[in-house]
Design goal:
Elements (H helix, E strand, L loop, with lengths): L2 H6 L1 H4 L3 E2 L6 E2 L5 H4 L14 E7 L5 H4 L28 E4 L16 E8 L8 H7 L21 H9 L8 E4 L17 E3 L2 E2 L6 H9 L10 H13 L4 H33 L11 H17 L5 E5 L21 H5 L2 H27 L13 E7 L14 E5 L9 E10 H11 L20
Parallel strand pairs: 3-9, 3-10, 5-12, 6-9
Antiparallel strand pairs: 1-2, 4-12, 5-11, 7-8, 10-11
Helix pairs in contact: 7-10, 9-10, 10-12
Length: 459
């Protein structure tokens, strides 16, 4: 189907158009011009609702993340299967003004679009590793021993439950990404995947940004051509003439965003090649960390923007991997993030730097999503519930209570932002997941080990 044919059959246009050169597929963002005249469409048609997760491995350093904990003592490693609890609550349960700790400070520019949610717990099922369970069960939270045919309390995860309702009309019902470029598979799949079709059936995460790009934009047949946006330009110009002024600007910005992703991939390849030949002690098979995480985040946002998927997960690293990782631009030499969490007294400054960088990477995506316009003057962020969080409340104690969590967006779902919502001790994380499902219009009365919903999320 040609681009002009795709424009005439407008129910096809939102999903993709085919470039005349090479048959490469490139998806389109929401464009008002393409909605006019669509069967069943109207000027006030609502944008699609989305759900996305930004997962932090190995927990966080509490004294930098949680307001009011800056002076708390550094904990010692508490060992496997710990049930440690910090009882010195800095605020009573309820809604409070949002204050920014050093780790959360990068969120200040998007303070009206995010909320800190604290007090959420998960139950640990003894008999499995705390890191593996932290990642693999983060989005499922099944009560311990409720699943009888698995060592893990793991069932169909929240992303797939949501996608059953809001992801069936997209090319990819879900998108699973991981910033784990380790070549040594020293851990099982439970340490590196947070998305599961069901008990024992993993939805494997993609780690290579070029693989993700080829899968999303269908460029594997055009590997000899480095720049898909060049392939699409002639057809794009024909489409551009049919767009109104506002859509022309959005379309130009979209093509530039895709080109920026390509340039970032080329830059990473160049940096990696230079680092391999550099005479420094480092693992030579790793991507530069800051570029890698930003690129995978951009791929996630672009997939949401273009309607390739409505549901996505991004793990910014694997749980417990002990192999040193490069942190160019963040730390001065390779480190094992997991190893550092076991000795915070020796690595406190570097741990805080990593936590702050991860929050910055999340804030960067929040800011970008807020600038992407969709139907009725809304933004991509308005139409996306976007969650940053970790499966452990502290990287040293391995606690499963008082988990760190920041929620962004979701205005179209009625979520109120710009505050610190501190929940009563013992509130199950699954209560939040059930509330998210209901906010997306999904009819559920219970999810995993939930005991109710969180009414304080809404305006």
């Amino acid at each position: 189907m040609s681009l002009s044919q795709g424009f005439q059959h407008q129910h096809q246009s939102r999903r993709k158009f085919l470039a005349a050169a090479g048959g490469a597929a490139l998806s389109l963002p929401w464009l008002e011009t393409l909605q006019a005249g669509r069967p069943g469409s109207s000027e006030t048609a609502a944008a699609a609702q989305r759900l996305a997760f930004f997962y932090l491995p190995n927990g966080i350093t509490r004294r930098g993340f949680f307001p009011g904990e800056a002076d708390r003592d550094l904990p010692k490693f508490a060992g496997q299967n710990n049930v440690w609890r910090f009882d010195g609550q800095v605020v009573p349960p309820g809604s409070h003004p949002l204050t920014f700790s050093p780790t959360l400070e990068p969120l200040h520019e998007v303070r009206d679009q995010v909320s800190l949610i604290t007090g959420l717990d998960r139950q640990f099922q003894h008999g499995t590793d705390s890191h593996a369970q932290a990642a693999s069960c983060y989005l499922t939270s099944v009560a311990p021993y409720e699943v009888t045919n698995s060592a893990y309390p793991l069932a169909r995860t929240l992303d797939h439950v949501a996608a059953d309702a809001i992801g069936q009309e997209t090319p990819f019902s879900t998108l699973e990404l991981s910033c784990n470029d380790h070549q040594n598979n020293i851990e099982s799949i439970y340490f590196d995947n947070m998305s599961w079709y069901g008990t024992g059936h993993v939805a494997p995460s993609m780690r290579n940004p070029r693989t993700v790009y080829d899968r999303l934009f269908g460029t594997s047949r055009n590997a000899e051509v480095r720049n898909i946006t060049d392939l699409a330009l002639s057809s794009a110009k024909r489409l551009e003439k049919r767009l109104n002024g506002g859509d022309r600007q959005k379309f130009a910005e979209y093509l530039e965003a895709v080109r920026a992703i390509e340039k970032r991939m080329d830059r990473i390849d160049k940096l990696r090649a230079e680092l391999v030949t550099a005479e420094i002690e480092r693992p030579d098979d790793h991507l530069p960390r800051n570029e890698y995480i930003h690129l995978m985040g951009d791929l996630l946002v672009t997939a949401l923007q273009t309607g390739l998927t409505n549901v996505g997960t991004l793990m910014v690293g694997p749980e417990r991997w002990t192999t040193p990782t490069n942190w160019e631009g963040i730390l001065d030499k390779p480190h094992s993030h997991h190893g550092m969490t076991h000795a915070p007294q020796n690595h406190l400054e570097d741990l805080l730097k990593l936590d702050r960088f991860h929050v910055f990477a999340f804030a960067r995506l929040v800011q970008r999503m807020a600038q992407i316009e969709e139907a009725n003057g809304s933004s991509l962020l308005d139409n996306t519930v976007f969650v940053l969080g970790a499966g452990m409340g502290d990287g040293t104690t391995h606690q499963y209570n008082d988990l760190p969590l920041v929620m962004a967006g979701g205005h179209a779902a009625g979520i109120q932002q710009g505050r610190h919502l501190h929940l009563a001790a013992g509130t199950p994380l699954a209560n939040l997941w059930l509330t998210v499902l209901q906010s997306l219009g999904i009819d559920r009365t219970r999810y995993a080990d939930s005991t109710g919903t969180i009414g304080g999320l809404f305006a």
